[in-house]
């Protein structure tokens, strides 16, 4: 892609915003050099890589990428025999540590059955250089100081150094504490000059202490003197310091040589960490602009749903659906210069460039973009002062260059095509240029205010008219793209709203041809019809979704009830039987005790009376039947056939036999539901045509608010607004006595999903939550079950 196109479509500004999300200079360097790819396979892999990183960030919230440094210059110097400084070695150790952390971090996520093959393939190349990392950490601390424990000799020298310094200080402090020193010293302190311990002596007493003068104050009244008595001690101290520096240098040489041994491994670590920082920066930027991963194709198809310009604040930008490349390959956006047309062009172009660079795009899940070999854009006023070219000439120079290069694998964006010259000639040129590019098979979107181009979309196959909606009431554009509706002039309406005399407006209308007036009326009618159709479609889709969800929920509940019914009846019968058996046992015990009392106490109880009492006890116990005997058996045996109308005894509902699914089971249509029912639970009513009109729906879910839907769609909502909607929706669903509901949050960056699920986990009425199944929306949907 040409740098000029990247600048015109503001891809360079996206790169600048992306820089804010990198964790290291390595990541920032990759971002600065980021350009869209034109290779389809590479783009698909880049998008998959970004999606994997988005999954990781959604699960974990953050990644351990701090502590990365650009150590490539350090490695290069160590290889040619250079000695690295302590700070450079610490940066190498820190980078190795971060690489080990990232490797372990991603491997643990993969062990939790999260599919991240591309990221895993990268960290698999990292060789944990634990030995080098530990060798550096044991020798140098994080601030870059060489530690005493770096070697035994250094430890010994540091001990000698501290001992010698203590002796020197002790000698000097005894000198400055003497009574005679009070008048001879400017201050009773021990200080250091030229790495040697000295005391501040007044000028007039310079000969009292002897020794060496190392410095004097700015006034010359104070001399910093090393007394003769400690010169030898200071010499010994300097000797130890020289040996210490030699040992430190030896340690650094050894560590530098060790780092040079791992040159290739360190280069791989730098490369992988740079890419990981870059990829996770793309994801963090995607979360900021509420982006999602688009599907990619190499067939020129574009389907953007609720696409937004990423550089316009989310609370101000207007989202638009943009479709291109399937039923039509060219869109001509007509209408006056009221704003919005150029933004639409840039949104399409910028989303395409972002996708081809591996970035997620600010549009809803399910959006699709094509990989183009080239993107061309002629947008904005590019009058060339250096070349003394007019606006028109400047545009034509650019268009000539485009026509020299464009082919079937190109996306071309023209803004105000043919502007800047005579309207009639400009319109003719615009039509000719569009024909040329369209005939080459390129995907084209052009804006123009020439009315002649309104007819262009009707006269050419594969071309669609479009416009940006304008609200005459507020005298401002709504920035909503209207596909299939050409733009119309609003000059008369705007003038009237602004107070222009009706007589003047009427005279102006008389100068406009009747055909133009008829066209404007037709366009106005089209706009109104489109708005009504969109409202009707949205309402119909809403009802359809609600009905499908209701059908699925009811069917699942009926299946669950049917599966549990028999086992519950069995358990109840067994429990009742246990109670009766226990009652009989107690009755037998009572009879035995009565007989014993008659024998021992000669009670006047006849045997036949005991037998009669036992018989009455046994007769009092009801006959226990299993669940399959509890169903009304008055139904006479009948051979069922598909199409028969039957009564499902377990639900007391009528239905139609669809088909026999096994030896004793039939599929029965009950209202809008189909379910399997055992033959013994069916009662024949008659032929389906005689009773079909009497069928009732199985059930109607009603609560206190029968208008509560079984699902809540949060896609496109701001985070805070979405949580407020979830809170109200859960309350409404509980009042409606729903056993379960679904919340659609989309996949996206995962922030909304995480917030919603966190709220649900802490709700006292929520029994459990889970992701939707494959047919329910997958990880883009959370299913909530209530207690």
From TrEMBL:
Keywords: ATP-binding, Coiled coil, DNA-binding, Endonuclease, Hydrolase, Nuclease, Nucleotide-binding, RNA-binding, rRNA-binding. PROSITE patterns: DNA_MISMATCH_REPAIR_2, SMR. The keyword Repeat does not apply. GO terms for molecular function: ATP binding; ATP hydrolysis activity; ATP-dependent DNA damage sensor activity; endonuclease activity; mismatched DNA binding; ribosomal large subunit binding; rRNA binding. Residues 516-600 form a coiled coil. SUPFAM superfamilies: DNA repair protein MutS, domain III, P-loop containing nucleoside triphosphate hydrolases, SMR domain-like. One of its GO terms (biological process) is mismatch repair. Gene3D superfamilies: 3.30.1370.110, P-loop containing nucleotide triphosphate hydrolases (3.40.50.300). Pfam families: MSSS (PF20297), MutS_V (PF00488), Smr (PF01713). Transmembrane segments: none annotated. Residues 712-787 form the Smr domain. ATP binds at residues 335-342. Its EC number is 3.1.-.-, 3.6.4.-. It is an enzyme of class 3 (hydrolase). InterPro entries: DNA_mismatch_repair_MutS_C, DNA_mismatch_repair_MutS_core, DNA_mismatch_repair_MutS_sf, MSSS, MutS, MutS2, P-loop_NTPase, Smr_dom. Acts as a ribosome collision sensor, splitting the ribosome into its 2 subunits. Detects stalled/collided 70S ribosomes which it binds and splits by an ATP-hydrolysis driven conformational change. Acts upstream of the ribosome quality control system (RQC), a ribosome-associated complex that mediates the extraction of incompletely synthesized nascent chains from stalled ribosomes and their subsequent degradation. Probably generates substrates for RQC. Endonuclease that is involved in the suppression of homologous recombination and thus may have a key role in the control of bacterial genetic diversity. PANTHER family: OS10G0509000 PROTEIN (PTHR48466:SF2), OS10G0509000 PROTEIN-RELATED (PTHR48466). Belongs to the DNA mismatch repair MutS family. MutS2 subfamily. Homodimer. Binds to stalled ribosomes, contacting rRNA. This is Endonuclease MutS2. It comes from Neobacillus rhizophilus. The lineage of its organism: Bacteria, Bacillati, Bacillota, Bacilli, Bacillales.
